[in-house]
Amino acid sequence: MATSSRNTVQYRLSSSVPLAVSFALALASCATQPANDATANAMLPAATTPAPAVAEAVPEIRPGVLAGYLGRDLPDSLKLLPAPPREGSPAFRQDQAVSRASQKLRDTVRSTQATSDADLAFPHVAGAFSCALGVPVSQDASPRLYQLLRRTMTDAGLATYAAKDHYKRTRPFVFYKETTCAPQDEAALRNDGSYPSGHTSIGWTWALVLTQVAPERADALLARGRSFGESRLVCNAHWQSDILAGRTIASGTFAKLQSNATFQADVVAAMQEVQSMRAGGKTPADCDAEAAALAIPIEGVL
To answer: Looking at domain 17-45+60-294, which of 3.30.1330.40, 2.40.30.10, 3.40.50.10140, 1.20.144.10 is its CATH number?
Structure first.
């Protein structure tokens, strides 16, 4: 990342900032530190950390945000992605068409689900894939799975910021002078680039990771990963091309994780937790409501 881009975003977190926004801002702050910043490097673990025999304490890079597995060995979103569609281009007109179609779902159960998906705060977001996984996810019942989600969230989110900070794409709610499903986050989102979608990168990374944890649930998990990203359309926070680009960055993140020993050990531990919960008959709640919401299609979505 160029020095000017690294130095562009400097955020200060405070208790007045919603945690979901604090997470995005923390990622941006960490992503824009110089590569030779000794303090930042000390907070981010090396990609080749040996796999621990038991779960170890993981440092926070910002309050509530655990260090990821990859450290600075992240996929380069500027190399992986083309430039976002230009205003007036056929691709941008497609983005606009999907945006307008998605806004017809505001004030529906699909919008309620999108609002829930927008909240990246733990423990809330830990349950986003519970129905697809078939078991409840919590820090008490599945600590290794819970930590796996927290750490991969950081990797998947950080990986989007080279392109986000370079293109600084305007979000649809700003373009149309409208609102989102999370009005309290809008001031921060106005200064956070739209392309690619960080929520989508996180959700699709989780879907891919969880297929390793529970391969027999792959179809349900991948479908949930898709819907998690598409919730950003309904929230009016992202364009469709942002969503598609977010999946690309997630795929790059997932590929990088495959050579990380600590990640692989945590996947095995998480798999054992899920199997134990299934054997104990534990099931998630409210899956019928989620299924009904996610069954509502977004017209024109790719």
So the answer is: 1.20.144.10
